[in-house]
Amino acid sequence: MNDRPRALHLKACRFGVTVLKVFWWTTLVAVIALAAALAAVTAGLWPIGPWLGCTAVVAVVETIVFWTGIVTVYLSSVQLGLKWRVIGVLCGWIPVANLIALRRIICIVEREVIFETAKEQLNASRAQQRVCATRYPILLVHGVFFRDSNLLNYWGRVPAELERNGATVLYGNHQSAASVPDSARELAERIRGIVAETGCGKVNVIAHSKGGLDLRYAIARYGIGPLVASLTTINTPHRGCGFADYLLGHIPAAAQQRVASAYNAAARRLGDRAPDFMAAVHDLTQAGCMRLNAAMGDLDEPPAGIVCRSVGSRLVKATHGKFPLNFTYPLVAWFDGPNDGLVARDSFPWGERFIWLEPAGRRGISHADMIDLNRENIEGFDVREFYVQLVAELKTHGL
Q1: Are residues 100 and 146 both part of a single domain?
Q2: Nearest one of 372, 361, 257, 355 to 312, comparing CA atoms
Q3: Does residue 109 belong to any structural domain of this protein?
Q4: What pLDDT is stored for residue 363 in this prediction?
Q5: What confidence score (pLDDT) does residue 45 get?
Q6: Is 396 exposed, middle or buried (0-12, 13-18, 19+ CB in 10 A)?
Q7: Please, are residues 20 and 105 in contact by the beta-carbon 8 Å criterion?
Q8: In the Enzyme Commission scheme, what number(s) does this protein have (predicted)?
Q9: Which terminus has fewer CB within 10 Å in the chain: N or C?
Q10: What is the CA radius of gyration of the chain?
Q11: Is residue 276 located within the same domain as residue 168?
């Protein structure tokens, strides 16, 4: 780690890792030295007093060094996550296991510093180019069961990365759960409002999951095509989710209504005006999407005058997806084959260009990974840079 990071939390991570490395090696050397000295004491070659004094000094110093390092990385690291923080606490008092856990923590945080420092340098090297400074602003549209929030951004670290590279980023601000026509109506009003208020003329839309269906419907049925320069759908179920049809057909109606009522009540408290859990779910089934596609008429021929792209990804193993995707992945695989934990590959393609993401390795990329929901650096896939390049491509096309 020769290159020094600029961000304060990365500086803290770097400091913490350095301190923990010092602790690791000095503890190892001290234990060996004290063990050799103890052998000399046992053989009567050295008095016990000095040995006890040295042991006490080493224990105090190493304790201070350890807690300085571990508290620093616990407070500053993003990639350490809850899992390894808990493992570190649980293994802290177990000999050998604590050293193994500590070594793993050091490796995770060290990789984080190296990766994030490289990103800092990349952004600094192209700062003057403003590669994401598109002609029209970027409108990010969330999927179902989420809201746009200042407290927890649905898109993770992506918006800040786009803005850092010159983009103007806006949000759909629509309800978390509603039918596709209702969500489309909200988004159409939102886009008209943006254009009227800013005078931007058009927007470039990037829509995740159900948001892609919502925007397609808004363009097809609510006349906002002239206000949309491009639409990029991210892991959108354009042909529906087969496992959703199965679940709705096998879960008792009473149970479905209980879940729907609980969700709708919670969503209202969080700000949704008229949430409709069941309408949103039914529009994501294969039967629902077949009906919607018939109404939109753009599945095979995307709307003229709009750059239309779609993106899909594959999760390789259920265990590599966070809950609930680790549960739904095998269900989707059983019904529809390769998928991202929710949506099958065959449901993703739409528009004039389809981008399929399947990095090498055994992990893959989940439905949630595509919006950086867990803020995780995935080996072989830099989600922030992926979006930077998506937007940079729009700029090169004058959009």
Answers
A1: no
A2: 355
A3: yes
A4: 85
A5: 81
A6: exposed
A7: yes
A8: 3.1.1.3
A9: N
A10: 26
A11: yes
Rounded to 5°, the CA angle 192-190-311 comes to 105
User: What tokens does 24 get?
Assistant: 């690791």
pLDDT of residue 106: 95
CA atoms within 13 A on the CB side of 52: 3
* Same domain membership, residue 276 and residue 379: yes
Bridge partners, 285 (sequence order): 241
Same domain, 98 and 146: no
Has residue 3 been placed in a domain? no
Tokens of 308: 């239309």
Q: Which residues of the chain have pLDDT under 50?
A: 1
Residue after which a domain boundary falls, among 75, 105, 124? 124
- Indicate if the alpha-carbon torsion angle 298, 303, 304, 309 is positive or negative: negative
In a domain, 199, yes or no: yes
SS (H, E, C) 9-43: HHHHHHHHHHHHHHHHHHHHHHHHHHHHHHHHHHC
DSSP string, 280-341: HHHTTBHHHHHHHHHHH--SSSPPTTSEEEEEEE-B--GGGS-TTHHHHHHHHHHHHSSBSS
Q: Are residues 287 and 389 in the same domain?
A: yes
State residue 50's pLDDT score.
Answer: 86
Provide the domain limits for residue 136.
130-396
Distance CA 299, CA 280 (A): 20
